Amino acid sequence: MYELLATPLWRDQVDWSRTDVFWGDERMVPPDDAKSNYRMARETLLAHVPVPAGNVHRVMTESGVPVSVARHYERTIREVFGIESPAVPEFDLILLGVGENGHTASLFPYSKTLHERERLVAEDYVEEVGGYRITMTVPLLNAGRTIMFLVSGEAKAEVVRDVISGPRNVEKLPAQLIEPAGGNLVWLLDAPAASRLPASIQRSA
Fold first, then answer.
1. CATH code: domain of residue 107
2. How far is the C-alpha of 186 from the C-alpha of 145, rounded, in Å?
3. Domain span at residue 81?
4. Beta strand 94-96 with 146-151: parallel, antiparallel or unpaired?
């Protein structure tokens, strides 16, 4: 999607001067690391569009220990929005994926971060991946005006079915926690990812 958005057909339809870019989650690696979400976004999109450098707000993973990085990013978000605690900023668009294990952003199954309701950004050591992640928390994500899940591939079909139409189990399937209070929730699925949804949902999509 980022590569398509960077092409002239789509790039020129966006007013990049009025676009601010944030990260829903990030790995605790340097910004030039191959595992960095920032690096991926820069190489596929940001380096190819005229977004002002001051409008790109990455997670400063090199600035300290995970808890300090998370708190710094929360301050950055509040400063850009001009909103103080306890108010919660409202992003115009939040783009999310879902892992085969049901995680979204870096909200992993059975993580303590699933229960965080005071902080906007939190750090968490994820045993499953053997490292720290910095992630937006449920209150911040659910304040988004439009939340869009973008999911492709047959490997995601089972978890898509479980998250959308299965029994509610947010500890096992954190993506079920994404329920915007006053915004829109959109699922963009290709045919393989949607293949295990109940027929009634497929017909209405």
1. 3.40.50.1360
2. 11
3. 2-204
4. parallel
Measured CA to CA in angstroms, residue 106 lies from 19, 27, 55 at distances of 24, 9, 23
The 3 state secondary structure assigned to 62-103 is HHCCHHHHHHHHHHHHHHHHCCCCCCCCCCCCEEECCCCCCC
E strand residue ranges, the chain = 25-27, 94-96, 121-126, 131-136, 146-151, 184-189
Euclidean distance between the first and the last CA atom of the chain, given in angstroms as a whole number: 21
Is the pTM higher than 0.85?
yes
Q: Convert the pLDDT of each residue in 119-150 to its tens digit.
A: 999 999 999 999 999 999 999 999 999 999 99
CB-facing half-sphere around the CA of 123: CA atoms within 13 A? 17
DSSP H or E run through 4: helix 2-5
Q: How far apart are CA 125 and CA 196, in angstroms?
A: 32
- Phi, psi for 46 (deg, rounded to 5): -65, -30
- Count of domains in the chain? 1
